[in-house]
Write a structure and sequence with these properties.
The chain has 170 residues and is mostly helical. The protein has one domain: Serine Threonine Protein Phosphatase 5, Tetratricopeptide repeat, CATH 1.25.40. The N and C termini lie far apart (77 Å). The chain is 85% helix and 0% strand. One of its GO terms (molecular function) is protein phosphatase regulator activity. It holds the Pfam family B56. InterPro entries: ARM-like, ARM-type_fold, PP2A_B56.
């Protein structure tokens, strides 16, 4: 087996291993895992990146929205790495829809100013990469938010009706 092919299989295995054992209750370990992830991604080629990018960026999106500012900040630092940005740019059609909501939530409500500022920068980077894709993600996000608001209003109305019926019957 060629050395290149072994490395191809190894990067995907290592990234999936990191994701499988991701520490969900220990923020300091999560920061360390993000650092290790960056090291592995630094040595990852486009083809192997594509094999694991969906589960990888689902986890990155969760980290972006972490209330622990060091976790969110460390996840956002991935965009400071040129090689990783290049991999992301090549696969933005898949990655941006996965993380768009996390970016929007940070901009709307993350308590930490540094995380907020870094998120604005990453969002701007995506906008500059592909305006059309960005606007499509924005449109889908707005529709999803409108549907959620509508469902919440219907739920409130149902509770009001139930409360009124209970008051009349009781």
């Amino acid at each position: 087996m060629k050395e290149e092919h072994k490395l191809f299989l190894l990067a995907d295995t290592v990234i999936r291993g990191l994701l499988k054992y991701w520490p969900v209750t220990n923020c300091q370990k999560e920061v360390l895992f993000l650092g290790e992830l960056e090291e592995v991604l630094e040595a990852t080629q486009a083809a192997e990146f594509q094999r694991c990018m969906v589960p990888l960026f689902r986890q990155v999106a969760r980290c972006l929205n972490s209330s622990h500012f060091q976790v969110a900040e460390r996840a956002l630092f991935l965009w400071n790495n040129e090689h990783i940005v290049s991999l992301i740019a090549q696969n933005r059609n898949v990655i941006l829809p996965i993380i768009f909501e996390a970016l929007e939530k940070n901009i709307q409500s993350h308590w930490n100013q540094a995380v907020h500022g870094l998120t604005v920068n990453v969002r701007k980077m995506f906008l500059e990469m592909d305006v059309e894709l960005f606007e499509e993600c924005q449109r889908q996000y707005a529709e999803k938010e409108a549907r959620a608001k509508e469902l919440e209003e219907q739920r409130q109305l149902t509770w009001q009706r139930l409360a009124a019926a209970a008051a009349q019957g009781g």
